[in-house]
Amino acid sequence: MHPLRFPWRRFVAHVSSRFVEENFDQTSASLAFTTLLSLVPLVAVVLSIVTLVPFFPTIVQQLDLFLARNLLPERSAEMIVNHVLQFSKKAGEVTAVGSLVLVATVLLLLLSIERAFNHVWSVADNRPWWQRLRLFAGLVALWPLVIACVVVATSHAVTTSLGLLDEPPWVRQLLLKILGLSVAGLFLGGLYYALPNTRVAPRDALWAGLFASVIFLMMQKAFELYLSNVPSYTAVYGAFATVPLFLLWLYLSWAVVLLGALVAATLPEYRRSADPDRTNQLDNN
Predict the structure, then answer these.
(1) CA 20 to 30 Å from 275, out of 9, 62, 129, 213?
(2) Rounded to an integer, what distance in angstroms lies between the CA atom of residue 76 and that of residue 82?
(3) Would you give the distance in Å from CA 155 to the centre of its chain?
(4) pTM (2 d.p.)
(5) Per-residue pLDDT tens for 51-101?
(6) Distance between CA 53 and CA 116 in Å, rounded?
(7) Which residues, other chains included, contact 126 with Cβ-Cβ below 8 Å and sequence gap of 6+?
(8) What is the radius of gyration, based on Cα positions, of the chain?
């Protein structure tokens, strides 16, 4: 499929109209609230698993950098990560009953995300409960480790190769930013591929993940410009300004994630319309 033959205007109009007409802004707000309640338990469960893996400090450090560079507002990223890690370590010291509550909270978040993704793909049937548990366990236990290992390996490769040609500092920053976007696209694309209860083409999930990661980068820059030029939040809330900014960031983040899911769900239909010869060939076969 040639990019020039793709109906970009109709595609963008369709995705935008679905986002507005099906009230995905309300879904984003609901997911933001659920994430706020589940974030500390989720990190506590992930850290309890990651501690069993060798090179635990390196993995946690790379996950911190990945979140701070790509999925959190730049000026508040370090404070947010430190507070979440601090609360998560305290959450890891609770009793057995408290641990069950933490796991139940994480399951509530994952169920909410799965329902939202199924709605994006217009899927009415849910997975059996054992398949859900297997999928959620894989996402919580394995997916952060996969992403962390990718970040560690690629960042090591990039940093060791830099300096060989005496390149300027902006080249290093550009390569690290491209690395972060690629890993964020892989992370989000994996969610688009695995969570909906339907078959999603890997290339559609990957393109949608890259699209969402670019929007995250643009959103980071917009937040940085806003906080630099319009310091009203800091003037009104003072040190407490991180809290409303984080709530707003959660809401916008879920809006971006759902928008990327809409892109992945809509791509197959418009790809077929943009390449009718290929579609007829598949139908004849």
Answers:
(1) 213
(2) 10
(3) 19
(4) 0.79
(5) 666 655 555 666 666 665 656 666 565 666 666 666 556 555 655 555 677
(6) 32
(7) 114, 118, 132, 197
(8) 20
